[in-house]
């Protein structure tokens, strides 16, 4: 197992929203999280990525293995497409950004400022960032927002290539990417029983 | 780390990056003070070291909310937190980039603006030295304030309230070095204390900033 989540409970704004979530992710495997708005997909992914400590339970195998892509792309409007990608590549100790530019059809836009891109193009650049991290586990939060059909296909192909190369992907999405090999996990049954944190904790 | 520093410097000099903003503010303040004080050259030259220090401090404060807030807004901070850089390293690099784009220009501009305030001749070198030693502390303390208020809408004012009291020791000893220098007295004690403050905050505060940032990112 590359990534193993056991009995995870997460809170948002001090309110328990999910509990008892367990799943495993192997190399070459993709896992799709489903569930209605507010069920806790983003919070769960942030916990797995290590941005938020889980309330209970353990996440093993995540340390320095995860490339996280959240709702915002982390792009700098005043840097060009290549400058943005090069920055992230060098943060992760890599230098080759060409495959990422090609995979997300950004070669024609390479010298444009990121601030002048359309929403879908920005998203593509944000997803291309995943490829320059060299990390094996992609954790994706609604990756297909503002992408058109052709771009969704590009993205699905990039994920498939990543999986074939021994990587794995954990994503929250409502769109069917055509990834037949992906396992779907519905989070609705893991919804936490309503209870609030104790007053003491609220002040700590 | 180097990539982050280069990116921050590049962003600062691109349009809207705010490079020179602090410097321009410093210039305006030092130009306005003689108008406010009136044609009393002797009084002006007596208060000049203190005015230069307060001007530098406020100019520094002006650009603090850009250190982390912009990265938080566009999501880069989340991504940096999952990158293989330690959070302590990230805040240190950010403070250093802030010092290069704000503190260093202030140090270099101070002697030129000293002329406008009829700064006494012996004070020039001590104003420059005290600012060079003290402004790194301003950037590091400011980064701590920025980390505390990251994610708060319109957190700039709150950050000023938090950061300005923390600037007091630096201001006292920095201005004291410049004042004693202007009067030809020995500056050793305040200068050592100023250096002590700078090195102390550079050594310790990044850990506090990183811890605060981790909590704020949740």
Describe this structure in words.
The complex is a heterodimer of chains A (204) and B (218). With 204 residues, chain A is an alpha/beta fold. Chain A has six helices and eight strands, in the order βββαββαααβαββα. In chain A, strands 5-6-7-3-8 form a five-stranded parallel sheet, with helices on both faces. Chain A has a three-stranded antiparallel sheet with strand order 2-1-4, with helices on one face. Chain A is globular, with a radius of gyration of 18 Å. With 218 residues, chain B is mainly alpha-helical. Chain B has helices spanning 2-13, 21-37, 41-62, 66-73, 76-82, 87-116, 123-149, 156-182, 188-217. Chain B has one domain (2-217). Chain B has nine helices and no strands. Chain A binds chain B through residues 49-53, 64, 66-79, 83, 86-88, 90-93, 129, 133, and chain B through 2-4, 7, 10-11, 14-17, 73-76, 78-85, 217-218.
What are the defining features of this structure?
heterodimer; A: 204 residues; alpha/beta; Rossmann fold; five-stranded parallel β-sheet; three-stranded antiparallel β-sheet; 6 helices; B: 218 residues; 0% strand; elongated
